Predict the 3D structure of the following.
Amino acid sequence: MTMPDVTPAPPDLPRGSAIRTLWGKIAAHPLAQIGPGLITGVADDDPSGIATYSQAGAQFGLNMLWTMPLCYPLMSAVQLMCAQIGRVTGKGLAANIKGAFPPVVLRTVIVLLLVANTLNIAADVAAMGEAGELVTGINRHLMTLVFVALTLALQIGVAYHRYVFYLKWLTLSLLAYAAVLFTVRVPWGQVALRTAWPHFALNATSAAMIVGVFGTTISPYLFFWQASEEVEDMHRHKGRGLIGHDPAIARAELRRIRWDTWSGMAFSDLAAFCVILATAVTLHVKGVTDITTAAQAATALRPLAGQFAFVLFTTGLIGVGLIGVPVLAGSGAYAAAEAMGWKSGLERNFRREPGFYGVIAVSVLLGLGIQYSPISPMKALFWSAVINGVVAVPLLAVICLLIAKKAVMGEYTGNRWLIGMGWLTTAMMGVAAVCMFLPG
């Protein structure tokens, strides 16, 4: 086993000091400081995302696995741009858009973001309620109320530095989807083959699924959240000034952001891959090809993969929902507060920042209210996907322009590779958005 490259302690140095030196080097590594990137990655796999990935595996088997390796560099590049914008400028994405583009651009993006997020929250809390009913036997509407109350209490009543601690532990819920694979037989040779060389007919049905996978993986709410969380982290760590004002810390901070974002997106992407694979080798091979909710996927798994796989899938669904809903509500609140010029931040007190926390509360409560209205949560999810698909394209273009602007980023503009990947993602999401409106 290769040991870390640590300078040996002098012979007379106490053993405790050598251990402290080693621990200090480990603690200083960027992976020990992961936060916004990891949480954003896991929030990407919210219950509505799990439903999309489950349908991909159930309907197409192993032939949709290729989407995840393709999504990984694209989603990582976009989130890296957002994180870098937030960290360099000390402002969230909406505040930067406000300063660099006409007001109509920001207003349009914020309104569409808030509507899409609220509809997505409705679908997510409905899925969490269904999963809670499957595990506990308690009515799904009552379980939905419990989860909504819990997420609101954590976001409004707990300071960011404590709240983020719980979010980091909840990221472990994604491991449940990898664990499901240990309960079923997986033909790994076929998995490798179909990931590299899929076999399916490119028609309206497969195109719709590809659009759905890309749309749920690269979503606007994640852009706003990660940029704002970099600002939160900067304020929480008093020693972290603006990169532009303190060049001495720039290299270390940008390196931390890269490690955080690439590792967080890898965790997210791998979990999504596992969901597609788990449903492909269980539901698809048994002819179960029509999945509309993540809870339905969990229920279908029970007779095919056993009780343990069912419990893992269901509890994982609740765990990612407890991250996804706060991120959806929080991203909209950050964007709205920056657009309105309000002070914002989960570290701030509710009484001092009623506008910011009001947006969070209204978004979640409206999402809850949809459960008791004639609107179907699945219809809400559909319209959320449509709005996200529409708003993602111009927003991605704005992000690419922002990170290339010296007036915004100073000497820390994005490199050619990063900006090129951003424009490639914009083009692919543009094609996906057009496909959503094609007949059939």
User: Anything to note?
Assistant: The radius of gyration is 22 Å.
